[in-house]
């Protein structure tokens, strides 16, 4: 298997495996540059899967405390009902955000697979 021809900023050659029939690995191939740039621009903005989990855990704790406060008479039931509804809306928003992220990731994977299939199809034509 051929190694990627890309020379990194530190002067060392990339250790990636080149795409068959090409001189670069998927991380350095010029045809994938737009996808890499698009994915890199999202870096750090979405917070990964940990942040939604932390948000959900915080909301769960609030709901448990709210329930205890209502039962012990520290919070009015109608105020607690409104707070619970608002937190439920927040949970729905987090859930929707996670689903949207999943769709984005799947879409990116499909695009990458389509590009690889097109490349293999081209290679098949060249070799015929």
General description of the model:
This protein has two domains: 1-45, no CATH class; 48-127, no CATH class. The chain has helices at residues 33-42, 50-71, 77-127. The protein is mainly α. It has three helices and no strands.
Unreliable residue stretches: none
Spatial gap, N to C terminus: 22 Å
Question: If you compute it from the alpha carbons, what radius of gyration comes out, rounded to the nearest whole angstrom?
Answer: 25 Å
Helix tally equals: 3
Biggest sheet descriptor: none
Count of separate structural domains: 2
Count every beta strand, where a strand is a DSSP E run of 2 or more residues.
Answer: 0
Proportion of beta-strand residues: under 5%
Structural class: mainly alpha
Shape: elongated
Helix content: 55-70%
The helix-strand sequence is: HHH
Mean pLDDT: 84
Assembly type of the shown chains?
single chain
Q: How does the SSE layout of this entry go?
A:
Layout: H1 33-42, H2 50-71, H3 77-127
Quick summary of this structure?
This protein has 128 residues and is mainly α.
Structure keywords:
128 residues, mainly alpha
């Amino acid at each position: 298997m051929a190694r990627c021809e890309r020379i990194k900023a530190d002067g060392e050659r990339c250790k990636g495996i080149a795409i068959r029939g090409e001189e670069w690995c998927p991380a350095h191939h010029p045809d994938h540059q737009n996808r890499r740039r698009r994915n890199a621009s999202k870096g750090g903005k979405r917070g990964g899967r940990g942040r939604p989990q932390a948000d959900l855990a915080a909301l769960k704790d609030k709901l448990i405390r709210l329930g205890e406060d209502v039962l012990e008479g520290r919070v009015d039931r109608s105020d607690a009902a409104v707070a619970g509804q608002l937190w439920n809306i927040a949970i729905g928003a987090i859930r929707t955000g996670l689903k949207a992220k999943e769709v984005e990731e799947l879409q990116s994977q499909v695009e990458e697979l389509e590009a690889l299939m097109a490349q293999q199809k081209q290679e098949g034509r060249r070799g015929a």
